[in-house]
Write a structure and sequence with these properties.
about 120 residues, mainly alpha, 6 helices
Length: about 120
């Protein structure tokens, strides 16, 4: 039983196999958990997570360094009052979502443009 729990835990915290796709894997997490307070309409604590410039300029995301990125620290904080998103904002992130964010930051935390704004020919 302990072995099974260890294997499940390792799978949840393992980095994503292959490159993380921002549009498929990361944007939905940020959109559902973060953009309400740190998105295009509202920037609590002067933090904007919907753009790479906003996230990296503030130092909340350090591309390539998830352990140095306060975003990871805050979504994992054991103190319920300090953990993001706040309890009254909805559901907390799952271990799998945190692992996905860590893998994305480790891979450079790219924010590619939405496919509708990409130059023609670069999508096909």
């Amino acid at each position: 039983m302990l072995l099974a729990a260890s294997l499940v835990s390792a799978a949840l915290f393992a980095p994503a196999a292959g490159p993380v796709d921002f549009a498929r894997d990361v944007r939905p997490i940020l959109s559902n958990a973060c953009f309400k307070c740190h998105g295009p309409a509202t920037q609590k604590a002067k933090l904007r997570l919907d753009t790479r410039g906003g996230a990296t300029k503030s130092g909340v995301i350090v591309p390539g360094k998830p352990d140095d990125s306060p975003l990871v620290t805050r979504v994992c904080d054991p103190d319920d009052e300090a953990r993001m998103p706040p309890a009254d904002a909805g559901e907390r992130l799952t271990a799998g979502q945190v692992a996905m964010l860590r893998a994305w930051i480790e891979q450079g935390a790219e924010y590619p443009p939405h496919w509708a704004f990409a130059p023609l020919g670069s999508v096909c």
